[in-house]
Design brief:
The protein is of the alpha+beta class and about 350 residues long. The protein has 8 helices and 19 strands. The protein has 2 domains: about 130 residues, Cyclophilin (Beta Barrel); about 170 residues, Rossmann fold (3-Layer(aba) Sandwich). It has a 9-stranded antiparallel β-sheet with strand order 10-16-8-9-15-13-14-12-11. Strands 1, 2, 3, 4, 5, 6 and 7 form a 7-stranded mixed β-sheet that branches. A 3-stranded antiparallel β-sheet has the order 17-18-19. Helix 1 packs across helix 8 and helix 2 crosses helix 6. The radius of gyration is 24 Å and the shape is elongated. It starts with a helix and ends with a strand. The chain binds flavin mononucleotide. Flavin mononucleotide binds next to helix 2, helix 3, strand 3 and strand 5.
């Protein structure tokens, strides 16, 4: 029965991973405020960041009483359905199919969305249909409802988060905490819960985010998270740790060269390897994934590291036994110890698992 449960759990994990929700942060910034907000946001979530830039450089939108900014918006307002009404932007190479969450960060110009961001959304808004769309607006003092209206015109079929975030120019220094509070308000982590195969490794100072592949070894490691283990040095290019329970692996696992940033499993010894220098293919060394953030911090990891799933939001921490060791037990949603193998949803080590 135990094996059946593990198998079903692996199936669940792999199924979830196949609908992974990636996030795109698209921003435009004329005087740097929205850029600072984009930096604050991307430090808190795993996201790809895209800067929108006007094709014509060096324009002074604020000159002559904001004449140019006003002129650009007037042109859009006169013919909002015409591509020629929008100022040209630099080409962007983005495949929106890759993203389920899109966060737009834009300045407010005359109570509207800044013109270059309007161009981007005019060109790509239709491709955002059905995706989760978040809006962050920076203005000096004006309220942002006009920008929300522009956004809904340009991305009419987006699934908007419950609330936009307004950050005044004077608040930009506090952007990190404003963004963090907003992410909680809109339940952002819940919405990205399907981003299940990304993990965070941290010793409290150095943090790395890995994206796992869909092999059985990666799913097995993912399944036992969160864990806290000692990190050790090995050779001159590896940090390693021994998971508290054995990683199971099958014939689907992949051997290959391991560039810096690779996460791998060394099956003869049962340890996980975080490479900070390149290594060649080796028998029984299976690739689990790669660092998508913080690869440069791997070599600094020291002491006890916490390895946890990103986007896992059951909010229930793993059980600790009296001796401080983690006690792997399953609980029904009413908090009682669950009967292993009984169909239903249980919580095991802080994660929801469906037993069929
Ligand atoms: C052309 C233009 C028009 C603006 N219009 C307004 C406005 O109507 N109300 C307001 O509060 N701020 C207005 N601002 C100020 C910007 O919204 C604000 O400084 C914002 O933080 C700038 O973001 P950025 O630094 O990313 O460009 C305007 C700025 C420009 C350049």
């Amino acid at each position: 029965m135990k094996r059946t449960i593990l198998f079903l759990s692996l199936l669940l994990t792999v199924a979830v991973a196949s609908v992974r929700a990636k996030t795109l942060v698209a921003y435009y910034s004329y005087t740097g405020n929205c850029k600072a907000i984009a930096n604050a946001l991307s430090g808190q979530i795993a996201a790809d960041v895209l800067e929108i830039q006007p094709a014509e450089k060096g324009l002074k939108y604020e000159a002559n009483g904001y004449a140019l900014g006003t002129q650009l918006l007037n042109a859009i307002n006169a013919n909002p359905d015409e591509a020629s009404s929008y100022p040209t932007i630099d080409p962007v190479s983005v495949s929106l199919d890759d993203y389920q969450n899109i966060i737009i960060i834009t300045p407010l110009w005359w109570s509207q969305m800044a013109a270059p961001m309007q161009t981007f959304l005019f060109n790509y808004g239709a491709q955002m249909a059905g995706k989760n769309v978040g809006l962050i607006v920076s203005s000096a003092s004006s309220g942002i409802s006009g920008v929300e209206t522009d956004c809904k015109r340009l991305v009419p079929n987006g699934k908007y988060y419950s609330k936009s975030l307004w950050i005044r120019s004077s608040q930009v220094g506090n952007a990190s905490s404003l963004v963090s509070a907003w992410l909680q308000q809109i339940n952002f982590t819940d919405q990205t819960q399907s981003d299940a195969m990304r993990i965070k490794v941290s010793d409290g100072t150095n943090t790395i985010i890995y994206e796992l592949n869909e092999t059985s070894a990666a799913a097995s490691l993912y399944q036992m998270l969160p864990i806290e283990v000692a990190v050790q040095n090995y050779s001159n290019n590896e940090k390693i740790f021994y998971p508290p329970t054995a990683v199971s692996y099958g014939a689907d696992c992949i051997e290959g060269d391991c560039p810096a940033g690779t996460l791998a499993f060394f099956s003869p010894w049962g340890n996980v390897v975080m490479f900070y220098g390149a290594a060649s293919r080796y028998s029984g060394l299976y690739i689990l994934g790669k660092a998508i953030e913080g690869a440069g911090h791997v070599s600094n990891l020291a002491g006890i590291i916490r390895v946890e799933a990103l986007g896992d939001t059951s909010g229930i921490q793993p059980m600790r036994a009296d001796n401080g060791q983690s006690a792997s037990r399953s609980y029904a949603l009413n908090g009682r110890v669950a009967e292993e193998g009984r169909p239903g949803i249980i919580v095991r080590d802080g994660k929801k698992v469906v037993i069929k």
